[in-house]
């Protein structure tokens, strides 16, 4: 009975974590460049159950004059002992592109990240909602500068107009006239096929692991657009309802196990 109590409780803990993950996805349904999380479950190692009371080696056809091919009791089957969240993986599927008309907005299609200077060092993002500071520095909506290929900030001249951002991050503008000139190129990189090479850090920023290998991005930058979150609100709401029901089922199993334990303690073996 104790085993059943722990198995049911582990299921409740699992569904609590899964619900938190889905709730975070729903909270970021309108966050540009957001990639949803997926809670991956793992079953504890199941136990092998055998019959021990009704075992008689004389009834086995493989037993002859005290010799048996298998001295162990017959198998009943396996018994699950619980589950846990093995990993919170990241769904890297492409989000839809939304046209904004703002020349400083960019959406990444395919693989790639923009580099951002933060108080904790260089971080990476797919959020392309950009703006200019009063000094002309290109930055995100949190005021963090976007970096160029040399890791320096990008400054857009005050008299620049008709800004054009190329597919690989080239920034050109007509400065003081009609002649276009390149004023910078954004650092546009990827980290290969290993999805664990870079992890979420919060605030829509990503932090590469020490072993991550930086390489040129294979995706493209689209000007005047933003990449929407790849969260599917309808599917996640259905999953949220299903998780609530699974949690309630686990709670009922815990109550049932507790009732059985109470009876075992207070009633079994009572002398009338």
What does this structure look like?
- There is one protein chain.
- The chain is built from two helices and 19 strands.
- By secondary structure, the protein is α+β, with helices and mostly antiparallel strands.
- The protein folds into two domains: 2-44 and 80-90 and 232-266; 97-227, no CATH class.
- The strands form eight sheets. A four-stranded antiparallel sheet has the order 8-7-14-17, with no helix packed on it.
- The radius of gyration is 29 Å and the shape is elongated.
- Mean pLDDT is 86; it is low at 64-69.
SSE diagram, text form:
Elements: H1 2-27, E1 37-43, E2 47-50, E3 75-79, E4 83-90, E5 97-99, E6 106-109, E7 113-118, E8 121-125, E9 130-132, E10 138-140, E11 160-165, E12 170-175, E13 180-185, E14 188-190, E15 198-202, E16 205-208, E17 215-216, E18 220-223, E19 225-227, H2 233-266
Antiparallel strand pairs: 1-4, 2-3, 5-19, 6-18, 7-8, 7-14, 9-10, 11-12, 12-13, 14-17, 15-16
The domain tally reads 2
Order of helices and strands: HEEEEEEEEEEEEEEEEEEEH
- Helix/strand-derived category reads alpha+beta
| Proportion of residues in extended strands | 25-35%
| Low-confidence regions | 64-69
Using only C-alpha atoms, the radius of gyration works out to: 29 Å
Mean pLDDT equals 86
* Span between termini: 25 Å
Quaternary: single chain
């Amino acid at each position: 009975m104790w085993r059943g109590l722990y198995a049911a409780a582990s299921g409740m803990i699992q569904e609590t974590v899964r619900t938190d993950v889905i709730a975070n996805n729903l909270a970021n349904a309108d966050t540009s460049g957001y990639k949803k999380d997926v809670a991956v479950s793992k079953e504890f190692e199941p136990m092998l159950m055998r019959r021990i009371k009704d075992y008689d080696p004389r009834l086995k056809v493989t037993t002859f004059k005290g010799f048996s091919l298998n001295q162990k009791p017959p198998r009943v089957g396996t018994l699950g002992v619980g589950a846990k969240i093995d990993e919170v993986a990241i769904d890297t599927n492409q989000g839809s592109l939304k046209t904004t008309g703002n020349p400083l907005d960019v959406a990444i299609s395919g693989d790639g990240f923009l580099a951002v200077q933060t108080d904790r060092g260089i971080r990476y993002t797919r959020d392309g909602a950009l703006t200019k500071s009063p000094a002309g520095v290109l930055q995100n909506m949190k005021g963090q500068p976007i970096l160029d290929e040399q890791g320096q900030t990008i400054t857009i001249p005050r008299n620049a107009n008709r800004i054009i951002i190329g597919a690989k991050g080239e920034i050109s503008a007509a400065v003081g006239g009609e002649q276009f000139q390149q004023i910078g190129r954004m650092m546009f990189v990827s980290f290969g096929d290993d999805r664990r090479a870079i992890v979420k850090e919060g605030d829509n920023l990503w932090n590469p692991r020490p072993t991550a290998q930086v390489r040129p991005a294979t995706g493209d930058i689209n000007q005047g657009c933003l990449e929407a979150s790849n969260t599917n609100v309808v599917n996640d709401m259905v999953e949220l309802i299903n998780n609530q029901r699974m949690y309630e089922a686990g709670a009922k199993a815990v109550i049932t196990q507790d009732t059985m334990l109470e009876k075992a303690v207070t009633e079994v073996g009572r002398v009338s």
